[in-house]
Structure formats: structure tokens, C-alpha cells
TrEMBL record:
Protein's membrane topology: Multi-pass membrane protein
TM stretches of this protein: 40-62, 99-118, 138-158
Keywords from the UniProt entry: Endoplasmic reticulum, Membrane, Transmembrane, Transmembrane helix
Originating species: Platysteira castanea
Protein name, entry field: Protein jagunal homolog 1
Length: 183
């Protein structure tokens, strides 16, 4: 091959290098999945900060009790859900499979499990609100049960997609590892 401005090698138009410049599909997928997981982690951090703010305001009584209710029991273990997110972020720079697996397992334990418990814990109060129209806890004038169920639904979707994309990323990393071993 010749330089940019110089003569071309005989018998070539200069386009025969393009086959060498393609990026393997599993590398492209890895970059895309890391980007999606990062977006989900940042969304999770926002949800986590809102719950933390609600807990701090409730416990320190910075606002009246009718403005921000005391937290439900499921919110305390959910505070640990920030750990799997950091493990996920730590796994990205060097494609660390063990950190990603730990992130996926701890997401189930510290994120999904408290959400399931929270849905069960709040169910009797939601039933009472639906049947009788009575709510005893409020967050800025809205029924605390309704607001927290909305948080549970959004958080469950965020963690579900996070686990799904993490599994796809793990598969992508295993593909690249297998290809390296073949060489």
C-alpha cells in the first residue's frame, strides 16, 4: 500500500483493506450493552437517591408527617442495592466476568428481593385504599402506597432490564474469551 498522497500499489484501488477494519460483532455488542447497562445504573442511582432522601426526611422529621411518611420496611434493605451497581460499573473497564457475575447475583439479592417483599408488604394497604379509599400515609399529598408502588414498578423494570443486558453482556464476553482461546 502507498501513503496518502503517494502512488498506489499496482493492481489495487486502495479499498482492499476494508475487510480488516471491521469490528467483530461481539465487541460491538459489548460496547452497546455496556452503554445500555450504564444508563440503567444511572436510572437506578436516581431512584436510590430519591428513596434515600425520603428516608432521611422521614427520620429527621424535616417535613411534617403528612408531607413525607416514614419509610416502609422494604426500603431499608433496598439501600444495599447500590452495591451491585458499583460492581457492574467496576466490571466494565477490563471486561471482568467475576465482577459482572457478582453484580448479577447481588442484584437479585439486594434489589429484586426487597422489591418483591415491598410489593407484598404494601399490598394490604393498597387493598384498603382501593376498597375503602382510606390512606394513612402520604408523600406530598399523594397516597404513599400509590407512590411507592409506582417506584417498585419502575425499579423492577430497571433491574429486570439490567439483569437481561448483563446476561447478554456475559454471553458476549464468553464468546470473545472462547475465540481468544482458539487462536
Amino acid at each position: 500500500m502507498a501513503s496518502r498522497g503517494g502512488p498506489r500499489a499496482a493492481g489495487t484501488d486502495g479499498s482492499d483493506f476494508q475487510h480488516r477494519e471491521r469490528v467483530a460483532s461481539h465487541y460491538q455488542m459489548s460496547v452497546t450493552l455496556k452503554s445500555e447497562i450504564k444508563k440503567l445504573i444511572y436510572t437506578h442511582v436516581v431512584i436510590w437517591l430519591l428513596l434515600l432522601a425520603q428516608m432521611v426526611v422521614g427520620h429527621l422529621k424535616l417535613l411534617p408527617h403528612d408531607q413525607v411518611a416514614m419509610p416502609y420496611q422494604w426500603e431499608y434493605p433496598y439501600l444495599l442495592s447500590i452495591l451491585p451497581s458499583f460492581l457492574g460499573l467496576l466490571s466494565f473497564p477490563r471486561n471482568n466476568i467475576s465482577y459482572l457475575v457478582l453484580s448479577m447475583i447481588s442484584t437479585g439479592l439486594f434489589s429484586v428481593a426487597p422489591l418483591i417483599y415491598g410489593a407484598m408488604e404494601m399490598f394490604p394497604m393498597a387493598q384498603q385504599l382501593y376498597r375503602h379509599g382510606k390512606a394513612y400515609r402520604f408523600i406530598f399529598g399523594f397516597s404513599a402506597v400509590s407512590v411507592m408502588y409506582l417506584v417498585v414498578v419502575v425499579a423492577a423494570q430497571v433491574h429486570g432490564w439490567q439483569l437481561y443486558y448483563s446476561k447478554k453482556l456475559l454471553d458476549s464476553w464468553f464468546t470473545s474469551t472462547q475465540e481468544k482461546k482458539k487462536k
